[in-house]
């Protein structure tokens, strides 16, 4: 794992991750329960063993969720969040976080790693594609869409 990235397992590191996630959501006018609530939630998820939180110093965060696969005995990994503070972009933190997330998923034995991003997020898409991810239902297939609904 790149030395600029570390797992957020201590309360202090999870507070940093929560602050970054709160800043991410509020930067895009998305709702956030606030840094304190996020830190508590991250702590519970990490303790449960189905979530990795990675930080790039105090300026970048990634959250990877693991789930049982329907199609194999291996787990699948979902990159739920990856965000780099605008003041620290283009320094390689996003790439380091993505690589660390992929490494942790491989080490866990996952056989699939997926994520969703918007069509207009050209920088994120370029990063993901440069690391071998593809936005199709298989190489050469149709574009895949991610749908959601709040319940």
Would you give an account of this structure?
By secondary structure, this protein is of the alpha+beta class. It has one domain (5-130): Gcn5-related N-acetyltransferase (GNAT) (Aminopeptidase, 3-Layer(aba) Sandwich), CATH 3.40.630.30. 37% of the residues lie in helices and 21% in strands. The chain has four helices and five strands. It has a five-stranded mixed sheet with strand order 1-2-3-4-5, with helices on both faces. β4, α3 and β5 form a beta-alpha-beta unit. α1 (11-27) packs across α2 (35-48). The longest helix has 17 residues, at 11-27. It is globular, with a radius of gyration of 15 Å. The N and C termini lie far apart (37 Å). The model has no long low-confidence stretch (mean pLDDT 94).
Rg, rounded, reads 15 Å
Tally the helices: 4
Question: Averaging pLDDT over every residue, what do you get?
Answer: 94
What share of residues is helical?
25-40%
Largest sheet: 5 strands, mixed
Briefly note the CATH topology name: Aminopeptidase
Q: Determine and state the CATH class.
A: Alpha Beta
* SSE arrangement, N to C: EHHEEEHEH
Shape call: globular
What percentage of amino acids are in beta strands?
15-25%
Question: Mind telling me the CATH superfamily name?
Answer: Gcn5-related N-acetyltransferase (GNAT)
């Amino acid at each position: 794992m790149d030395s600029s990235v570390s797992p957020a397992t201590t309360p202090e590191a999870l507070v940093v991750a929560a602050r970054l996630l709160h800043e991410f959501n509020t930067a895009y006018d998305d709702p956030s329960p606030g840094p304190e609530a996020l830190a508590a939630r991250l702590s519970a998820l990490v303790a449960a063993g189905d979530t990795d939180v990675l930080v790039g110093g105090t300026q970048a965060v990634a959250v990877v969720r693991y789930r049982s696969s329907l199609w194999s005995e291996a787990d699948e990994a979902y990159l739920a969040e990856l965000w780099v503070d605008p003041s620290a972009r283009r320094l390689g933190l996003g790439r380091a976080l993505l690589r660390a997330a992929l490494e942790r998923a491989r080490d866990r034995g996952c056989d699939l790693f997926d994520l969703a991003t918007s069509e207009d997020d050209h920088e994120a898409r370029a990063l993901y594609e440069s690391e071998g991810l593809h936005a199709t239902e298989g190489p050469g297939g149709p574009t895949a869409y991610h749908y959601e609904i709040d319940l």
